[in-house]
From TrEMBL:
It is found in: Cytoplasm. GO terms for molecular function: 4 iron, 4 sulfur cluster binding; dinitrosyl-iron complex binding; DNA binding; metal ion binding; protein-disulfide reductase [NAD(P)H] activity. The Fe-S cluster can be nitrosylated by nitric oxide (NO). Belongs to the WhiB family. It comes from Blastococcus mobilis. [4Fe-4S] cluster binds at C18, C51, C54, C60. This is Transcriptional regulator WhiB. The keyword 4Fe-4S applies.
Amino acid sequence: MSSPTLLRPPDWTRQAACQGISGRDLDPWHPPEHLTAAEQATQHALARLVCARCPVRHPCALEALQAGIGHGVWGGLTVADRRRIARRHGYPQPGAAQHGTRARYIAGCTDGPDGKACRPCLEAHRRWVAEQRARTAARKAAVIPPPALVLVLGHGRRRAYPGQYVLFTDGLPAHALLRPADTGGRTVAA
């Protein structure tokens, strides 16, 4: 039996020039959305300066291109740069759903035979449909006791008054809660 694979960043990331630069207040590789376009461009320019002297710039850019990462600056390339390169050289579009996911199936995967969805995307969609059907069947199978309309009911500290609906808890039969002794001798209708 093989041991489980641990998810860790590639080895080249230890040599990256950006190691330790990003912080809570400064992350030019992923500027916040609330900044204006000019402020984001300034942040990206700062990130590109750091990337320009990075010894692992090419593996970083290649990682982003191959994975279709749709955010941030990787290897000195912004999302727009990576889109242009992806179109020209056949990489997945940044931010596009990857093959083998339901998101790609919904987005209109046409890489299969006859321009239909490819097998991995189709299988992902079938798994999702099966899960949805199982959840729906489980919800329908859950038994919810019907409410009982009572005229007068006293039970413990809480009392139900005429015309109220009382929901009985699971496992307790209705007759266990409707005891004439609790009503002070008045009649109870269930």
